[in-house]
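Homework-ish question, so no full write-ups if that breaks the rules, but can someone show me the predicted structure for this set?
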Amino acid sequence: MSLLAVVLEVAAVVGLLHLVSLVAVVGVDDLRAAPRRAPRTLRAALSPLATLAAVLAVNGVIRRLGAELSWLVGVNVTGVIYAIEGAFVAVVQSFATPAATAYFGFVYVFGYVYLLTFPLLATTLRGHTRTLRTLIAAYGLNYGIGLVCYVVFIAYGPRNLMPDLVESLLFTSWPRSQLLTSQVNVNTNVFPSLHTSLSVTVALVAYRARDRYPRWTPVAVALAASVVVSTMYLGIHWATDVVAGVGLAVGSVVAAERYERRRDADRRGDSGRSGESPEPGGSTERTRG
Amino acid sequence: MERSPPTVATRRRVLAGLAGGGVAATAGCIGRIRSVSGWESSTQVRLDIKTVPADADPYALRIARQLREWYRAAGIDARVTPMSEQELFRQVLLNREFDAFVARMPARFRTPDSLFPLLHSRFVETPGWQNPFGYADLEVNELLETQRRTTGRRRAEAAATLQTEIARTQPFTVLAFPDDIRAARPDRFRGWQGADLRSPTGYLSLDRTAPGRERGTADGTTATAEAASDRRTLRVATTDPRATANLNPLAVEFRRGDAVTGLLYDSLGYETDEGTTEPWLAESWAFSEVDDAHVARVTLRPGTTWHDGTPLTAADVAFTYDLLADTTLDGGPSTDDGGTTADGEGEGERVPAPRFQGRSSLVADAEAVDDRTVEVRFVDCDPTVAARAFTVPVFPEHVWMNRTDTVSLGGLEFGPATEALVTNNIPPVGSGPLRFVRNTPRESLVLEPFADHFLARRPPEELPRGFADAPAFDRLSVRVVGSGVTAVEVVTDGDADVTGTPVGADTVPRIGRAGDTSLVVDGRSAPYVVGYNALRQPLTNPQFRNTLARLVHRPSLVRAVFEGYARPTVSPLSTRRWVPSELRWSGEDPVTPFIGSDGTVDAERAREAFRTAGYSYDGDRLVRTAR
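A: Not a homework solution, just the prediction itself:
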């Protein structure tokens, strides 16, 4: 069961990264307060969590239908993307060294999972309800819009279109990882790059919360940048996918923040009448522009 | 090649000029306009090369990219469009939506008659692996028919002329016979070297290693459990997900070859490496001549049954040929008195099977004499050719007679396809040596030996040569992985016994480094070709295709793409004795020699060749008049 082995490996490494980061980012004091705070925070984030779960479930169903649906209703844009950017990814790969391949391979699989999961954990433990809700809503938007794009646009990545110029570096250096990635996605789903959009989403949200997460923000930004480069470096995504991914991330974060702001305003209006506390979660949260 | 808007633009400009001319327009001017509008502006020749991505085929896309470079050097606007193999086959074989495609042929062409369905113009209207090129050449038709009717020297001559004519008119360009490269583990099964794993017989010819010789696999517990009961699963890693989702032998877009469906469905006979046909499900057959037609009396093996327990009879065999000729069975079973064959149908449109037409079209009609005897009457052809008709899979009448209605979804009818062509046929009811256990679409497929099969039941002396035993495994499990490299790693890790689909030459060092894994290289393979749509401009012109073929330098492909693991070829036929000496590869293409040297197109000479063929250049763009 080598797929299971890969999953366990990822879980173990990401778990280890979490442990280290918890101490460094969340801190001992907040960890002590966490058992009391976390359940309340999670309850407050229930509605975006349910939405995200629903989006992921739909994602799962659509993936079961597989590329079949795409081929029926979608357009093959591989040629268009190639016409736009040509062999740019091959240029990126021309800087390849064994060390860089190891680093970007690690970042693409382990770093990405860590980057996406840690802020959920950290904001929950520290009781930052609004940041958590924003993040989850942005994830949901990323997945939802990404999914529609995957159905509408059929595109193969550079490693599949120009095998003579672009090596499939992740899978030639660590073939077993493909057992995992092919469980998560099919090779026609490259536009836009969800690796890019979700990583950039985390980086944007972290940047907004930089006052409260001074240690996490630089890590998130650096890691997100590495993930973005890795998608091209490993020959999986086109630069076009990456640009579209960044656009999707910015759009998702802006929309999620706007939604949360409006919700807050509504709740304040309500609470003015009913006299309830507007912030059920953390105490340190401030509204930022 | 798409028509671009200049046609409209020109007319519009002329009309605008007319309006501007206003009152000054005279009868003379109108005459001038009419003359001008007959001359349309010219557009660059565009070629869209469709093929499969690198994950699905180690070589096809790289071939297509190299062709694109060569075509571009001659001023053609060539581009490459990758798509899944299923989609490629749907667009090319069923809808004929393509300019050119790069693919591996579905099977080896061992005999000249295997070219019949591919190139005879009577199949232009038949979807599937029947003349997908829309190619029509009366001389080729005649030669194809001659080689069916003749024997000896006359057949050899017809075959030789046929191959030369094909090489000149280029319905497709044959590139090379690749070596099928596989990784296999010799610790649980042996006989990998020499087993033809593109055909079902390859898996049946394997032997298990003696118990105890097994080395520890990564999955130690299963291995010990298996050793205890001596049950053994043959684990195959494949990059082709289609067989896990569809097991219909007629579904052309899901079939690469017949390795899997051939294990589930028996045929009366099987084709040997030499191209002869030997009895398989049939015990024997005897040819005779009745009223100037060859008739074969085929005797089935005694006691054969389908996987669901229903007895397999001669009626199923007769039904099979009716079904292949017309899956609607509308003309009434052709075994009816009066001998109405496929052309005698009354009402509905014929929907022939998109596969096996070359072989099934040899049969004029088939009739069950008794349970074990079927009489097959052939069209005008020689018995050695006629016996090829026995290699089609036999279908159970009690299952497939319910699949003859045209397909409808929610009351809407879709084209002329029948249920028989679109069903995924899971679970399949065949009579082959293996039967279906379970599947998870796009992930896995499990088969097991069929205990009532003749290989398991009959004494060795009655069995076909080399198959004197039941299969050496107790299960056959197929698992889908993302690419060839991953398939190799799954084998070297001990999680699979063999890579079912051939892998690329770039994995050879990886296989060599792994201690417990053998490299299996098999040169008996189907060729890679570039197919052209001869019904689209300017590919309709044989001279254009001929010139296009002169932009292909096979030795470069063999060196750069196949890394030496292939042989260049001009003729599609793989059996040396059928290929005339003047067509055999001797370092250069004898019919369409490369325009250039050492893999680099000589642009000046290429332009000259296309000009001679009647095309012109606008700068360095090859143009043709859009009409």
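Now go work out the reasoning yourself. Hint: The radius of gyration of chain A is 20 Å.
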